[in-house]
Design brief:
single chain, 311 residues, mainly alpha, two-stranded antiparallel sheet, 12 helices, 56% helix, binds zinc ion
């Protein structure tokens, strides 16, 4: 997942190089997983000791919301699924916020996610929790990750904004840690940096694990996909927990498809559209929704997979 130092998943020239690259990636992955965890354990002590200020909590919430929206609006709905289009400045803005999440370079993230949609809950899914929940949640990152951007998100490679932010992902990730430090000193870094990354890591991964295990299924989806809708993950992840809706209609800019399905990311895209800052927003007609709704034991899954939006 953390191939951002190179800005993408690179083919290895030799077996030796491949093993070295894989070990380096695994080492970095472990560091980037353990540092936020260690920071969060210390933050509990910090809070318990009365050292945490209201400013620290505001920094946590502010940076959490900004970074989460960078992933959901930028990496996911805009880049991977092309659910809407926006100008280069906003594209860069959302992708930079996404880079703060320390989930890899934007283009690598998009390729891996597009592969997940293509092979959902099969052996080729990078992070299916169906056989092993821990694998779907976190340990998949320690394995060999192969999702070639040239194969899964080919057209996005032509976007200079996407490629610039992807190649400089490490810089933006560091900046995302330094900003709360500049604003709030060490405790600002602790809460607005490490704790914020730790919580968002697990919320993002919960979409992969919890939302393929626990929750309800409103729509039939193709193949062996077992995506679910989960309201709690939906709230924490700015709308990404309506994951069965999303697998049924991957290109939809809105994942909450019913009135009570809170989808903060979708609301913001709607406002951007009203302001003229987002265009070609993909929506799903009520007729198409109804045609995909589960029909009980007699219902049959769709024979055609909805396009992921990549390629
Ligand atoms: Zn999924
Ligand atoms: Zn998706």
């Amino acid at each position: 997942m953390f191939e951002f130092l190179k800005g993408g998943v690179q083919p290895a020239d030799t077996l030796v190089n491949y093993r070295l690259a894989m070990r380096t990636t695994q080492f970095l992955t472990v560091i980037f997983l353990l540092a936020p965890l260690a920071g969060t354990v210390y933050a509990v002590f910090h809070l318990w000791s009365g050292l945490t200020s209201l400013k620290d909590i505001y920094l946590f919430i502010g940076f959490y919301v900004a970074t989460a929206l960078g992933v959901t609006i930028g990496f996911h709905r805009m880049l991977t699924h092309k659910s809407f289009e926006t100008n280069p400045i906003l594209r860069g803005f959302f992708l930079i916020l996404g880079a703060w999440a320390i989930q890899g370079a934007a283009i690598s993230w998009a390729a891996l996610h597009a592969k997940h949609h293509t092979y959902s809950d099969t052996d080729d899914d990078p992070h299916s929790p169906v056989k092993n929940f821990a694998h779907g949640h976190v340990t998949w990152m320690l394995g060999p990750l192969r999702a070639e951007p040239e194969k899964y998100v080919k057209s996005q490679l032509q976007d200079p904004v996407v490629m610039f932010v992807s190649r400089t992902a490490f810089f933006w990730a560091v900046l995302g840690m330094l900003l709360p430090f500049f604003i709030g000193g060490f405790s600002g870094f602790l809460w607005g940096g490490l704790v914020r990354v730790f919580v968002l890591h697990h919320v993002t991964w919960a979409v992969n694990s919890v939302c393929h295990t626990f929750g309800s299924r409103t729509y039939e989806t193709a193949g062996s996909d077992h995506s679910t809708n989960n309201w709690l993950v939906g709230l924490l992840s700015m709308g990404e927990g309506w994951h069965n809706n999303h697998h049924a209609f991957p290109r939809s800019a809105y994942h909450g498809l019913k009135r009570r399905q809170v989808d903060v990311t979708g609301y913001i895209i709607r406002v951007l559209g009203m302001l003229g800052l987002a265009k070609n927003i993909t929506t799903i007609s009520p007729e198409l929704r109804d045609s995909r709704a589960k029909k009980g034991p007699g219902g049959s899954p769709p024979s055609v997979t909805e396009p992921v939006g990549a390629g």
